[in-house]
């Protein structure tokens, strides 16, 4: 029998080390939980987290009216290279499209740097006699007899999936679809996929790479979804569930199994979606989303509550041409290892100690000093984490820091502070990448810091970059799970077009109507509130890349929209150049009703430090008050220096800063001068 009298919403976000659970009631009451992930069978941790969280709040599976899930299964499958056995059939003469790739190089001056190996072995690729031109006209008909003979060369490899990717098929997929039918009938592989059904856009390498990634992760994702659905059914969950996709929207399990490449960046998107929703709530115009984990930091720019998006991302160095939140990831996290370069200079990252063995202070056999060890040595971290569930060996970290610091002629404290200054500079470069390099003034931006380690670094970064403020959400260490609770259902459609005249632009109306009709057939609940956003990819003729902008049927207005975006992105517009549109896009979303934010208005603003701890700040030890964030109410103000601890994270406030809590438990850290003036 349920002890809970309200419907419950649950989100579970699976990471490589921990699985995070957020469960929220209709009145906004939120409970969070962390448990170890089970990489060999990720669904086990999800089911255990679901049951454990419900027990903690006195609920039952029948109380759940929303269940959403963020997964790293597709991501890890590509990174670890343990996906499906896949083959490919391509146009004659294009067997090496994945190996040749394009002219961009990972590091043009490093002779030892090489591109990642393609996901499809060359011996698993065969060619078909056929050819389309760039307009979709058939130059050479598909030789079906020859194809039936050629594909027999693939049978011996016992392939899981075969991809069919023909030149210019994004304009006319007739040959791709027919070839896929023939291969399926021959039983060459368990699954056959036409590349155009995954990504129907120009650029053969990127389109083929996307189709290869989709095929590579498909069996693993399908198996995972099947296992998870069985577990949810056995647990008694009655509501339908959704999975997070790279674009920041939700997919049904069926759609995720059919288009698994859309979930490849699922783990990165949740926190950005949460930060975007919080930015809207706080009415902030420019926010940098800043998510620090154990190995990496994920950074994204949010403008007016909408995160920047990209249509061309990468996973493990492989192009992925699908919509995704535009996240810049750097190798800097709590587990980043400190080392000395050939010139004796102090460097930190990108190599990481990970969670196992982890930092020296984790007592798991770690041998390398990390950012977490530096925080422990200078006192920002105490001797325990996760509310006392995890002990830190601070003396061991100090001994190692003392010994290592002798190479630099520095004390343990100065060495640790140096490690933090280096990692701060690395993170600052990452933030500039998504802001200053896009023409955005950081002095007008707020930093939304979350992840387990984000609140430890936010104060230093805001000061380094002269940002307006740092905002710490209520549960920063579980932010990705909390963020996806309010993510919308989303479908993306794209059609390649050739538009460079006013008449051709007006003809796009029919194209958008066709995509909208397609969307109507795909929606599980077409009766629900649905938003349709029509977009186009436009460029000046002769340019290699496009800008995605809103569609307008009037040629003059469309040109103004494009040129304004062009000037914002590149600093100029060219009134003499001819504009062309190459892709029409339709973004279909079904927003969910946002849950009520939990209020702390009833909690007193007065707080008292639970204890004090020596913290090394700017070259000297200081006696710093330690606060419990659970005691913070509306309008609570804390002057720095201070440390604020909570179950899932630790917050550091510099001496020249102060922090003020708001009604909904968002902590705003500003310079003490700014706080006084406001």
Would you kindly provide a written description of the structure presented here, covering whatever features stand out?
This protein is 31% helix and 28% strand. Strands 13, 14, 15, 20, 25, 26, 33, 36 and 37 form a nine-stranded mixed β-sheet that branches. Helix 10 crosses helix 12 and helix 11 (394-405) packs across helix 12 (412-434). The longest helix has 32 residues, at 204-235. It is globular and about 80 Å long. The model has no long low-confidence stretch (mean pLDDT 91).
User: Strand content of the residues, in percent?
Assistant: 25-35%
Give the overall form: globular
N-to-C span? 50 Å
Estimated helix fraction: 25-40%
What is the typical, i.e. mean, pLDDT? 91
Number of helices: 18
Number of domains: 4
Domain Acetophenone carboxylase-like C-terminal: 561-671
Domain Hydantoinase A/oxoprolinase: 207-492
InterPro entries: ACX-like_C, ATPase_NBD, Hydant_A_N, Hydantoinase_A, Oxoprolinase-like
GO molecular function: 5-oxoprolinase (ATP-hydrolyzing) activity
């Amino acid at each position: 029998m349920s002890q809970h009298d309200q419907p419950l919403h649950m989100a579970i976000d699976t990471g490589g080390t921990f699985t995070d659970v957020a469960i929220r009631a209709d009145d906004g009451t939120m409970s969070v939980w962390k448990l170890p992930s089970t990489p060999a069978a990720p669904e086990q941790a999800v089911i255990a987290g679901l049951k454990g969280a419900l027990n903690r709040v006195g609920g039952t599976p029948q109380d759940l009216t929303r269940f959403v899930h963020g997964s790293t299964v597709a991501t890890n499958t590509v990174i670890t290279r343990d996906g499906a056995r896949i083959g490919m059939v391509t146009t004659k003469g294009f067997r090496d499209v994945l190996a040749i790739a394009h002219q961009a190089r990972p590091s043009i001056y490093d002779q030892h740097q090489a591109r990642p190996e393609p996901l499809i072995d060359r011996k698993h690729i065969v060619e078909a006699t056929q050819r389309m031109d760039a307009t979709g006209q058939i130059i050479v008909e598909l030789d079906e007899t020859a194809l039936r003979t050629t594909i027999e060369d693939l049978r011996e490899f016992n392939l899981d999936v075969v991809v069919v990717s023909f030149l210019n098929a994004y304009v006319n997929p007739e040959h791709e679809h027919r070839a896929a039918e023939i291969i399926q009938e021959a039983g060459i592989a368990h699954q056959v996929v036409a590349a155009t059904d995954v990504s129907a856009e120009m650029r053969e390498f990127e389109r083929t790479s996307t189709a290869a990634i989709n095929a590579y992760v498909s069996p693993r994702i399908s198996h995972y979804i099947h296992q998870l659905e069985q577990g949810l059914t056995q647990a008694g969950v009655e509501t339908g569930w959704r999975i997070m996709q790279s674009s920041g929207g939700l997919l049904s399990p069926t759609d995720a199994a059919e288009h698994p490449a859309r979930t490849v960046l699922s783990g990165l998107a949740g926190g950005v979606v949460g930060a975007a929703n919080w930015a809207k709530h706080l009415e902030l115009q420019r926010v940098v989303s800043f998510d620090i984990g154990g190995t990496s930091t994920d950074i994204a720019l949010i403008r007016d509550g909408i995160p920047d998006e990209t249509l061309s991302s990468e996973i493990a160095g492989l192009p992925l041409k699908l919509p995704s939140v535009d996240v810049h990831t750097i190798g800097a996290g709590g587990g980043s290892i400190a080392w000395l370069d050939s010139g004796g200079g102090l460097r930190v990252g990108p190599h990481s100690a990970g969670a196992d063995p982890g930092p020296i202070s984790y007592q798991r056999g770690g041998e390398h000093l990390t950012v977490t060890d530096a925080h422990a040595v200078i006192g920002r971290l105490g001797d325990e984490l996760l509310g006392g569930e995890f002990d830190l060996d601070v003396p061991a970290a100090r001994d190692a820091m003392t010994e290592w610091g002798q190479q630099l002629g520095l004390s343990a404290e100065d060495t640790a502070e140096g490690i933090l200054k280096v990692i701060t500079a690395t993170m600052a470069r990452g933030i500039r990448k998504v802001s200053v390099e896009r023409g955005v003034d950081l002095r007008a931006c707020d930093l939304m810091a979350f992840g387990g380690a984000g609140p430890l670094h936010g104060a230093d970064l805001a000061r380094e970059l002269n940002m307006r403020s740092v905002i710490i959400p209520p549960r920063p260490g579980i932010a990705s799970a909390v963020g996806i609770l309010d993510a919308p259902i989303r479908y993306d459609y794209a059609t390649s077009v050739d538009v460079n005249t006013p008449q051709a632009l007006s003809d796009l109306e029919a194209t958008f109507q066709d995509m909208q009709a397609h969307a109507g057939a795909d929606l599980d609940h077409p009766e629900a509130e649905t938003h349709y956003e029509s977009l186009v990819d436009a460029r000046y003729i002769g340019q290699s890349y496009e800008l995605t902008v809103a569609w307008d049927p009037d040629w003059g207005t469309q040109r103004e929209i494009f040129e304004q975006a062009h000037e914002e992105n590149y600093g100029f517009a060219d009134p003499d150049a001819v504009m062309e549109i190459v892709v029409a896009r339709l973004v279909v979303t079904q927003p969910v009703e946002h849950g009520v934010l939990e209020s702390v208005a009833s909690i007193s603003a007065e707080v008292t430090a639970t204890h004090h701890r020596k913290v090394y700040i700017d070259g000297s030890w200081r006696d710093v008050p330690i606060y419990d964030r659970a005691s913070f109410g509306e309008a609570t103000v804390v002057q720095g220096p201070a440390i604020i601890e909570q179950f899932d994270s630790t917050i550091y406030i510099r001496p020249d800063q102060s922090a003020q809590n708001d009604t909904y438990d968002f902590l705003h850290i500003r310079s003490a001068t700014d706080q006084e003036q406001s």
